UniProtKB/TrEMBL annotation:
Domain (Glycosyl transferase family): residue spans on this chain: 248-365
Xref: PANTHER family: MONOGALACTOSYLDIACYLGLYCEROL SYNTHASE, MONOGALACTOSYLDIACYLGLYCEROL SYNTHASE 1, CHLOROPLASTIC
GO molecular function, one term: hexosyltransferase activity
Biological process, per Gene Ontology: glycolipid biosynthetic process
InterPro entries from the UniProt entry: Diacylglyc_glucosyltr_N, Glyco_trans_1, Glycosyltransf_28_UgtP
Identification of the protein by name: Polysaccharide biosynthesis protein
């Protein structure tokens, strides 16, 4: 998939490339949200969106796209195991490394043709590719990694980037505890295409009031997802046992067979149910609904929160969707059904408990981040122009401490972490291990105790890791003054 938009006549300005991967619909939806937000900035001349799987070979595309959902359906325990195994940051990534070699050439060619000044990744696969291109000096564009779930997963952390955007504050705290600098990590929320009207203002502090009187019963929005999951049939069947008054809109996605079965099921209920196939009217439906029943994908959940719409969670994918659900329930914006037999009862409990639906709506509205896409653009384009490099030594420290449940920023000694700070603007340009400083200090140390990184023309060049770091952070300059900042707090 390649989509290009130009907000106006060709003019000097930012050229933004958005890289996604069509594993599910969420990553591409986030890319579309960022693309739309580009139209709101006068400094952007052209935008292009590229699904990297569409540029890869068919076998690999099917392996990731279709194979993943086969595992979700038939072997969910394996999906959960894979999620947990790949969660520690900088752990070896198995099949992902061969992808960088076998499928990167068409993507790299597309990057060179477009000549972007900024690249935004809404999937970890292109983010890992861009890190290698930055370290090799192949690209000279600002790069951003934008996560699409509420929990941060280790696969998203790469060795080189300009900005990393996570969904919530806890993810930002997690990354700074690993050693990542706060000037490179922001909690913006997940990019969504904002609704044309805001969610109604609700009082989150008032937990005693009853729901406001209304002339129409609450509207349930039941979503089977873009592909149309069969679990929606069980959900609809259970709602037919609800005693509280309600109406329901059922969205079946592209599954025409499912739509037909649900239409047959609800026919005796008259006009209480409305059954739709794939629709482009989801933003409108989210605004009209009072309660959403479906899976807690990162984009679906973010769209609901932005609309002030609480969720009843069913059939979450092990790993990221379960964790999304945990966060929403923790914040009071969702309830979860762990068995199909209780779905109707649980929805009825929400509807008939005085004030409960209103409190959940207020909690959802509090979590909503409708401006996330615009915040991502501002954070990248208005942020540091030099990339931030995580050296291999620092990666080993981060991985080791993560596996041992230690805090990387609390380490002392040779394996502790230090940062190199651009002295001219104050932004962090590198995270490295203390023992990696020796070579740099010997070659580039100054009388003041700082460093002057420069292109080294001597016969005896610095070590390979130091050369990678210097090449990436210097960009077009011949030299860069930096100072060293330790992370471990001094002992008393």
């Amino acid at each position: 998939m390649r989509r290009t938009t130009a907000p106006g006549p060709a003019a000097p300005g930012e050229r933004v490339l958005i890289l996604s991967a069509g594993v599910g619909s969420g990553h591409n939806s986030a890319a579309a949200a960022v693309q739309q937000a580009c139209a709101g900035r006068a400094d952007i001349a052209e935008v292009q969106v590229l699904d990297v799987l569409q540029a890869s070979n068919v076998l690999y595309r099917d392996l990731l796209g279709k194979g993943y959902f086969v595992l979700v359906e038939d072997l969910p325990w394996l999906v959960e195991w894979g999620y947990d195994q790949s969660d520690p940051p900088f752990r070896r990534r198995g099949l992902i490394t061969p992808w960088n070699r076998a499928n990167a050439l068409p993507v790299v060619a597309a990057i060179k043709r477009f000549q972007p000044t900024a690249i935004i990744c809404t999937h970890f696969l292109p983010a890992q590719l861009l890190a290698s291109l930055l370290l090799r000096g192949t690209i000279d564009a600002r790069t951003a990694v934008v996560t699409t779930d509420y929990d941060f997963q280790g696969l998203w952390l790469t060795s080189a980037f300009h900005a990393l955007f996570v969904a919530r504050e806890e993810g930002r705290v997690q990354l700074t505890a690993l050693g990542l600098p706060s000037d490179r990590v922001s909690a913006t929320g997940i990019p969504i295409i904002p609704s044309t009207s805001a969610a109604p203002e609700l009082d989150a502090a008032d937990t005693s009031v009853s729901p406001p009187s209304r002339t129409e019963p609450p509207m349930l929005l039941i979503s089977a997802g873009a592909a149309g999951g069969d679990y929606a049939l069980a959900v609809v069947r259970q709602t037919m046992h609800i005693r509280s008054p309600f109406t329901a809109t059922v969205v079946c996605g592209r599954n025409d067979e499912l739509r037909g079965r649900i239409e047959e099921l609800v026919a005796p209920a008259g006009d209480r149910y409305r059954v739709l196939g794939f629709t482009t009217e989801m933003p409108k439906l989210l605004r009209e609904a009072d309660l959403f029943i479906g899976k807690p994908g990162g984009l679906s959940a973010s769209e609901c929160m932005a609309a002030g719409l609480p969720m009843v969670l069913v059939n979450p994918i092990p790993g990221q969707e379960v964790r999304n659900g945990d966060y929403l329930m923790e914040q009071g914006a969702a309830v979860r059904c762990n068995t199909a037999a209780t779905i109707g009862w649980k929805i009825d409990e929400v509807l008939r408990t005085p004030g409960r639906l209103q409190r959940m709506q207020a909690a959802a509205q509090r979590l909503g981040r409708p401006d996330a896409a615009a915040d991502v653009l501002s954070g990248l384009l208005d942020g540091p122009s030099r990339p931030m490099i995580v050296t291999r030594g620092a990666q080993k420290t981060i991985l080791a401490t993560s596996e041992k449940r230690l805090i990387a920023t609390e380490l002392t000694g040779p394996s502790s972490l230090v940062r190199l700070i651009d002295s001219s603007v104050g932004s962090t340009v590198a995270l490295l291990r203390a023992d990696e400083l020796d070579d740099l200090e010997e070659r580039y140390g100054t009388p003041s105790g700082d460093l002057m990184l420069r292109r080294d023309q001597s016969v005896v060049s610095p070590r390979w890791e130091a050369r990678r770091l210097i090449r990436a952070v210097l960009r077009g300059d011949d030299a860069l003054p930096v100072h060293v900042e330790g992370l471990a707090a001094p002992t008393t």
